[in-house]
Request: fold
Amino acid sequence: MNRLMTNFLCGSILALTLSACSTAPVPTGPDPSVSDPVGRHNPSLRIAVLDHHLLGDLSDPAVMAKYARADIIITQPDRFWGHPGLEQNMALLRAANPHVKILGFFRSKCVRQEWADYDPSVQSFDRALYEAARPYFSYTTTGDTLQDWPGVALFDFTKPAARRAMLDVFVAYQQSSTAKLDGVYWDYFNPELWISQDVRTMTGEPDMDGDGVSHFSDADEKAAFKAAQVEWIREMRGRLGNEFIQISNGSRALTDSTFAGLLDGMNYEIFPDVGFGGSMPYRAALDPNVPNNLWAAQRWLRTDNGGPWQILENVNVPHMVDQNQQWQPLNLGDMNRAIALLTGSTVIHYDLTGAHHAGIPDVEVNLGAPLGGVTVAGDVYSRLFERGSVAVTMGSGAYPLGFSFAIKQANGTGGEDVVQAIGSSYIYP
Reply:
């Protein structure tokens, strides 16, 4: 293996913070009794694919390799539903990995406006969702169609009839299609609406219930907004059963233990800044004194059908300056993988395009099953596995390079080699 040792200085830092609070008791430390789910091809680490785009040509071995190695794939249901030829996509994925869990996005509050023009003979699922939501569209205080992202229309999911209409469409396809999803990925559950700054044409203030009061100043509307999220989860479980996986995107489950307890998983989008605010988010994520630290939050989740699914995601690509003053990209999937090995979380690796495209790590690791919990000695967190170990040394705790780590793997001759180390040095394979 050719290794280039490179010292890094921080070059590009993003700041997106959310405050963390929880109703859960503060744990005293990492729980060594928590066992990682078994029965997967890499027992040391679970990999997720979260792909907002087309799956690509699944007959291409290079494309399929990105999906075949995953334990869970999250993508749009219209990759499998809406036209008879699409069902083959799921058949190919399951043939490549019979153990993979495949989840579909389920938008909790919006439909894309372009779906109104879709031909129902070739894109029937999206068109049917639009038609189901249309009678329940929400508006602003000036009567404009409410959006939280450009090109979408929000519907008032606090109305039981709206939720029922959307679920009727989803359940009908799930039951009639040969492409059966294993669960849903809710996008998204927050304590209140979030409006993207990219929504530039909408006038007025958001007003889901139409009472003339802005959502952000309407306590009743915000309470209904949160209550309806609970009903969404319960109604989906009532329609599709206890084993149907439900994973939440958004900040609510990351800090609310009672809400998280309804779910099988949660996604830390833009980890660690979403979920752990402040100047030292990596340190907070592993700090037993932080109420929603990763070990604590994982114990909130259900364990049915492979759970808990605690997913660490960050699509951004920060660049670092090396000792030769050269910019080098940092794959945050590598940083998050070290954290995931410690915590039993699931990690996403992206392809360094800055988009939600599945990627494959430069350095593959399979350390075998963990031999126990995490040992904490000052700022060093370590864990032993059947065929190796991981050690994380917490530094500043800041994003994106607030700690260093080393992963060692058995070399087949009775010893171990460092297969990847990032922080004060970076090893290119």
Observations:
- Residues 1-29, 32-39, 425-429 have pLDDT under 50 and may be disordered.
- Residues 188 and 249 are 5 Å apart (CA to CA).
- The two ends are 6 Å apart (CA to CA).
- The chain is about 25% helix and 20% strand.
